[in-house]
Structures are given as structure tokens and as C-alpha cells.
Design goal:
heterodimer, A: 497 residues, mainly alpha, globular, B: 40 residues, 1 helix
Chain lengths: 497, 40
């Protein structure tokens, strides 16, 4: 008997916890500010309505209807679609092994926040003291022993959550982490808004540059932000929704998840850019001179900003990194669960066995990311997984469902227990809008990578990662699973129906 | 901060936080209905 979420709240919090991740805190504000500021809001809201919510509804419906993770759900529609599910699962596995390293750095920075131990040179502190970065990918520099304790701590916590399963593990973890995350961000926002210079930060983020609306790159950036932010197209939402009771309203749940995720990133962005605005004010420079995204924002700019605060510097450092930790943990466990579900379903393993099969190799490989070259591997793996893997997987998913299967059947399945029905707009958003935008993004990212490479990293490393995703998906598809894996529930629409 | 920036911030906040409020209202309403139906 397949495990089910104990309550609707448990599933909603887990889905929100998965969607709300590090990208909400460190990616969105900068993307908005550098892609038209306030004018970015229009393509962003449009992308949420035409791609984010439709794909979320699709994935919730797939998981709930076919009652299996991504490989099983696609295989139950058509055996030829199964490889896409494994491709998504392997993207999750690749993200899992480097995501650990980021959470490890975040834990280190929670400790460094006491007394602002990063000093005045936050860049030198990150690359020299914390990462002990080597000269390149081929120079590993050994495992950094000072990162071992937080590394093992994260692994122990994750292993406990994963072995305890959906209700006793993931549900409980999300119910603990999300309120902490919200409380930390609320305090950061309130403090940020009361600082001098905060308005400059907000003006940088929200002042509209209307000429940006006509720029196709801004639209692609908006769709990219929505797409990466919602944890779609890499097996997570299909996996989570496969544990839903049959009478769940997936349409309203998709709206709630998307609005909460994006509402949260707007809220967090207000807090982060208020504090960055204050930092720019204190340093007498423009906000555009200090604004950054990603690792640069989290571990260089924000620590500098925390050091310049008039009081309670350590407290605000801890609050920021605890919010990153909780956001990262809820996302990490969802990513791992998508891999576990795929393995468990195909070979009808016990949950404990499937968890071991996934965690042991992930544990071994993740050591690579706490070596002196860890940041290089992380940067490239992140690029391959997100900019090539996820967008390609997304476009293949909507093409297969939209053009080679009848999405109308899934629309009926979604509407069956829904409080408000989705119309044909949903089908056309999937068949046309998402295919065009994601297709364009995938092709341009592939062309860019194969012609220019990425950040000067050796191409062969990227090819190994791509081969892992593609060849791995083919091998896992060809391996024979248990009979039940291919058998769709009686009431689920089939390819031949 | 310009008026247009304030308006865009308000549109984003109201649009998304309003979406959360509406979705939650629908969810609670349907839960209530389901509970009442089960009691009957």
C-alpha cells in the first residue's frame, strides 16, 4: 500500500518548502533589478500564469493520477516516455550532490556570523579561508577538513528525515523549517525597511525601465525565474503528488503553491535589497555597484552588509543564514525524495532499501564538492543541471504530453476534484506558450554551451555530466522493473484510450 | 523612490499575496463543505 500524506497541509507545506529555496532569496531580487526593475513584474506575472501554474497543475495531476514518481508516471502513459522520467530523476541526483555543499557553507556562515568573523575582506574570506579554492578543476586540493563536521551534520539530518519517510520525516521537517524561515525573513524585512538608504535599494529593484518589456531576453529571464523557482521538470512535484489522496484539489493547490513561492520571493527581495541599499548608502556608492546574485550575494555582499549594520550585526547574520539553511533543507529533501520515489517504484523496494540505494552513492560523490575545487564542479554542475537539463526536460515534457498525448484527458482528471475548473487555456499554454519559450531557451543554452563553453571550464567535464544524465536515463529505462511499475491505475487515462 | 516604482511594487505584492489569500479562502471553504457533508 502506497504511503499517503497525513493531511493536505502536510503536502502543501512540503510543496511550498520544495519550491521556496535558495533561488528565492539570492536569485530573484537581482534578476528583477537587472531585467527592467518594476517593468519585469509584467513578464514575471505573465510567466507565472502561462507556464508556472499550468506546469504545476500538469505535474500534480500526473503524480496523483498515475500514483508513481516521474519515471513510473511517464511509463504508465507510454513505456517510451519512461526515459524522460529517469532523465529528470538523474538531474535531481546531480543537484543533490552539489546542493549539500551549499548547505554546508551556509552552516559554516551561521557560525562565522558570531562576531562577523569574515572581517572586511568577505571575498578573500570566502575563497581563501572557507573554500580554500584551488587554481582550477584539475587541481582538487584535497578534502577540506574544516568542512567535514558541518558536512556530516547535514548528512545525518538528511538521512534521518529521508529514512523516516513522507509523514514522519518530510512532513515534520517542513512543519519545523518553514515557520522558522518565515520568522527570520519577517525580521530581516522589518529591520531592512527601517534602515536609511533602504528606499534606494527598493528603487533599484522596482523602478521600471519600460523599454525592457520589448526585449525578448527579459521575457526569457522571467520564464526562467518562474521555471527554476517552482521545482518543476525535475521529478519533484510528480513524486510528492504521487502520495496525494485521490480527492485532492490539485488546481487550487497549484495556485496556492505558486502564489506562496513567488509572493515569498517578492517579500524576501524587499528585505534583502533594503539592507543592500543601506550598505550602499553607508559606503557612499550606488546600489548597482554592490548588488549581486547567487553565491556572491549570499557569502560576499550580504556579510559585508551585515558588518555595516548599526547594531545586532551577529543576530542579523545568523537570521539570514538560518533562513538560507531552512530554505535549502526543505528543497534538498524534496530533491532526494524524487530520486527515492523513482527507484522504489520501479523495483518495488522497501522505503529503507531505496533510501540506502540513493543516499550511499550521493554521500560518496558529494565529497567532491568539499574539496578545494568544489566550487568549480558545483558551478558547472549547476549550469548543466539547470540551464541545459531542466529546461530540456521541461520542453520535452510539455511536447510529449501536449502533442503526443491528449492533455484534455489530464485536464478532466485535474478538474474532477477541483473547486474551480481550468479551461482550455491550460492546454494551449502547455502546447504553445511553454513549448515556444522553453524551446527557445533550451536551444540558445545548448548553442551557447557547445560553441563557447561555460566560464572556461574543461568541456570534457561538462560532457561527462551530460552523458551521466542521458546515458544513465537510457540504462535505467532498459533495466527491467517489476510488473506493477508499468500498470496504470484503472481510472487513469492511457495512451491507447 | 518614484511613484511608478511604488505602483509596480504594489502590483507585485497585491497580485501574489492576493493570490495566496484567494487560494486559502477556497481551500478552507471546500474543507468546511466537505466536513459538513461528512457529518450529514
Amino acid at each position: 500500500m502506497r504511503e499517503q500524506w497525513n493531511s493536505k497541509l502536510g503536502f502543501i507545506l512540503a510543496a511550498i518548502g520544495s519550491a521556496v529555496g535558495l533561488g528565492n532569496l539570492w536569485r530573484f531580487p537581482y534578476i528583477a533589478a537587472t531585467n527592467g526593475g518594476g517593468a519585469f513584474i509584467f513578464p514575471y506575472l505573465f510567466a507565472i500564469l502561462t507556464a508556472g501554474i499550468p506546469i504545476l497543475i500538469l505535474e500534480y495531476t500526473l503524480g496523483k493520477t498515475y500514483r508513481s514518481g516521474a519515471p513510473g508516471s511517464f511509463a504508465r502513459i507510454n513505456k517510451k516516455f519512461e526515459a524522460l522520467g529517469w532523465f529528470q530523476v538523474l538531474i535531481s541526483f546531480l543537484i543533490t550532490v552539489y546542493y549539500f555543499a551549499i548547505v554546508v557553507w551556509v552552516i559554516c556562515y551561521i557560525g562565522y556570523s558570531f562576531g562577523c568573523q569574515w572581517g572586511d575582506d568577505t571575498t578573500g574570506f570566502l575563497y581563501g579561508n572557507v573554500l580554500e579554492l584551488t587554481g582550477g578543476m584539475t587541481e582538487l586540493g584535497g578534502i577540506k577538513t574544516h568542512l567535514l563536521a558541518p558536512f556530516l551534520f547535514v548528512w545525518v539530518v538528511v538521512a534521518i528525515v529521508m529514512y523516516r519517510g513522507i509523514n514522519k520525516g518530510i512532513d515534520v521537517a517542513c512543519k519545523i523549517c518553514l515557520p522558522i524561515l518565515l520568522a527570520c525573513v519577517v525580521i530581516i524585512v522589518i529591520r531592512g525597511l527601517t534602515l536609511p538608504g533602504a528606499i534606494d535599494g527598493l528603487a533599484y529593484m522596482f523602478t521600471p525601465d519600460w523599454s525592457a518589456i520589448a526585449n525578448p531576453d527579459v521575457w526569457v529571464a522571467a520564464y526562467g525565474q518562474v521555471f527554476f523557482s517552482l521545482s518543476i521538470a525535475f521529478a519533484i512535484m510528480i513524486s510528492y503528488s504521487s502520495y496525494l489522496p485521490k480527492d485532492t484539489d490539485v488546481v487550487n493547490t497549484a495556485f496556492l503553491t505558486a502564489c506562496t513561492n513567488h509572493g515569498f520571493e517578492i517579500f524576501a527581495g524587499i528585505g534583502i535589497f533594503s539592507i543592500i541599499g543601506y550598505m550602499a548608502f553607508v559606503q557612499g556608492v550606488g546600489v548597482e555597484d554592490v548588488a549581486a546574485a547567487g553565491i556572491g550575494l549570499a557569502f560576499v555582499v550580504f556579510p559585508t552588509a551585515v558588518s555595516t549594520l548599526p547594531a545586532l550585526n551577529s543576530l542579523f547574520g545568523v537570521l539570514f543564514f538560518v533562513s538560507l539553511f531552512t530554505a535549502g533543507m526543505t528543497s534538498l529533501i524534496s530533491i532526494i525524495q524524487s530520486v527515492i520515489t523513482g527507484i522504489q517504484d520501479k523495483w518495488e523496494m522497501s522505503h529503507t532499501k531505496a533510501t540506502t540505494v540513493v543516499l550511499v552513492p550521493a554521500f560518496i560523490v558529494s565529497f567532491l564538492f568539499i574539496t578545494g575545487a568544489g566550487l568549480y564542479f558545483l558551478d558547472l554542475a549547476d549550469f548543466i543541471a539547470n540551464n541545459i537539463g531542466i529546461v530540456a526536460s521541461g520542453v520535452i515534457e510539455v511536447i510529449l504530453i501536449g502533442w503526443f498525448f491528449r492533455p484534455e484527458k489530464l485536464r478532466q482528471a485535474a478538474n474532477e476534484f477541483s473547486n474551480f475548473s481550468i479551461g482550455k487555456w491550460w492546454t494551449w499554454c502547455l502546447k504553445l506558450v511553454t513549448v515556444v519559450v522553453l524551446g527557445y531557451t533550451t536551444i540558445s543554452n545548448l548553442v551557447s554551451y557547445f560553441t563557447e563553453g561555460y566560464e572556461g571550464y574543461p568541456m570534457w567535464v561538462g560532457y561527462i555530466m551530460l552523458a551521466f544524465l542521458i546515458v544513465g536515463a537510457i540504462i535505467l529505462t532498459l533495466m527491467k522493473g517489476k510488473e506493477g511499475f508499468y500498470k496504470k491505475p484503472e481510472d487513469a487515462p492511457g495512451y491507447e484510450d | 523612490m518614484s511613484t511608478s516604482a511604488i505602483i509596480m511594487m504594489a502590483i507585485a505584492c497585491i497580485g501574489l499575496w492576493g493570490g495566496i489569500a484567494v487560494s486559502m479562502a477556497i481551500m478552507f471553504k471546500s474543507d468546511k463543505k466537505r466536513k459538513e457533508a461528512a457529518e450529514k
